[in-house]
TrEMBL record:
SUPFAM superfamilies: P-loop containing nucleoside triphosphate hydrolases (SSF52540). Pfam families: CoaE (PF01121). It comes from Hymenochirus boettgeri. Keywords: ATP-binding, Membrane, Nucleotide-binding, Transmembrane, Transmembrane helix. This is Dephospho-CoA kinase domain-containing protein. GO terms for biological process: coenzyme A biosynthetic process. Gene3D superfamilies: P-loop containing nucleotide triphosphate hydrolases. NCBIfam families: dephospho-CoA kinase.
Length: 229
């Protein structure tokens, strides 16, 4: 099995690409979904976030107000770094568990959907390939304003908090241009899926796992024979 890092930018249409990959039966681990899970009320990450940011970031039901927290960190790089340091270790632990599960199920590759893959860079070394979901800057801005119902100025601030999509283009092994219609993106995803399925990148890990498993079986059998003698 090998890992494929999928990334993009805010409002680049990455969710559309992920939904198509899941329709194709691909194993996808969504870092955003996990990020929501690890900060539910009562978790260790939640407790530390409230300690550092205060009760004003909480909803009436006690859960985090993601919109309010987002507004804080998008306007303060230091606070954004602090939040990432509190949440990212928890996210990585859950991602590792899910990756191992897909490995035992026999998947050839697993797609890790990581929005800040190129910004943080800490996960890139584990990826055999990286995929960028791209859209042109104007489309990105319009999508974000429409999706979040925010002002143009606020949308520009949120986009500026990430690396520009154009600067990520040379960092990616594959690029899916999602500036247009869903069907256009779907054709590109199908081509990507075919390439990944045809890859033999999964063999080294699979062979290593078989070798280790075989060795353990032989050891256990030898030990049992001695005990029976």
């Amino acid at each position: 099995m090998f890992l494929v890092g999928l990334t993009g930018g805010i409002a680049s249409g990455k969710s559309t690409v992920v939904s198509i990959l899941r329709e194709l039966g691909c194993a996808v681990i969504d870092a955003d979904v996990i990020a929501r899970q690890v900060v539910h009320s009562g978790t260790s990450a939640y407790v530390h976030i409230v300690q550092h940011f205060g009760n004003e970031i909480l909803l009436e039901n006690g859960e985090l107000d993601r919109e309010k927290l987002g507004a804080i960190i998008f306007n303060d790089p230091k606070k954004r770094h602090l939040l990432n340091s509190l949440v990212h270790p928890q996210i990585r632990r859950v991602m590792l568990k899910q990756t191992l599960w897909y490995f035992f199920l026999g998947y050839k590759y697993v797609i890790l959907d990581i929005p800040l893959l190129f910004e943080s860079r800490s996960m890139i070394r584990y990826m055999k390939s990286t995929v960028l979901v791209y859209c042109d800057p104007q489309t990105q801005l319009e999508r974000l304003i429409r999706r979040n119902n925010i002002s143009k100025q606020e949308a520009q601030k949120r986009i500026a908090a990430q690396l520009p999509l154009d600067s990520k283009l040379p960092l990616a092994d594959y690029v899916i241009d999602n500036s247009g219609e869903r069907e256009t993106a779907r054709r590109q995803v199908l081509q990507l899926h075919a390439r990944l399925e045809a890859s033999l990148g999964y063999l080294p890990v699979r062979v290593a796992a078989i070798t280790v498993t075989t060795g353990l079986i032989v050891f256990a059998w030898t030990l049992l024979r001695r005990l029976w003698q």
